[in-house]
Amino acid sequence: MLNKPEKKTTADNIYSELGNSIIEMRIRPGVILTINDLAQEMNVSRSPVRDALIRLEREGLIMTLPQKGIMISKINLEKAQKEQYIRYSVEINVLKEFVDNYTRKHISDLNSLIEQQEKAIKEKDTRAFLSLDDEFHKYFFAATDKQYCAELIWGDAGNYQRLRQLICVDTTHEESVLSEHRQMIEAIIKKDEESLIHIASQHLLDIDDNAIKIGEQYPELFEALPKKGKMRIFGDDFLGGLVKG
Question: Among 100, 122, 133, 208, which one is most buried in terms of CB atoms within 10 A?
């Protein structure tokens, strides 16, 4: 007898919604909120909000400030680079396995994701583009039965994910990302593992050149950067007028 899927709790929904808003930079790093604010905005009691915040704090996305509330954690560049390295190390091996076992359907699915990314670029939808970028890379994990590895990597990469958001907003490198995706598929079709790994390595480590520049441009969003700047809010603010600078 098949087990029924577990029903999501209110705390699960709050965790997902708030976590996604943080990762997508709908709430900027450094913003201070209270449990009461969140409970009122989401029309729920304090208890599930508190449970969701405990999980988000474990992941390093928020931190508790005594007598103040909770603060959206600022981006830690050193941790972002380590998160990037973990993903790179695992994904390279996943690609090596994929290139030896891919099917026509795999190529068709990947090309479909590229077409959707092209559409996102035309519509200037950065968040959609990044979401599709994640889907593209997670596809290799799913095709090689490594979904659990992907869940671990993406689930503990809040600094890296937010840095990617900033780089995409402040640069026009989506076209180069798309070009590298196409090159990866071409190498896979040719079963050219050497070229695939070379392209993927450049692709997966591409934030290094932009990280420091972005950190200097928006120092208020990062930990331990010497310069100070005016606070900015990125994207559609999830909590509207409730955010506090």
Answer: 133
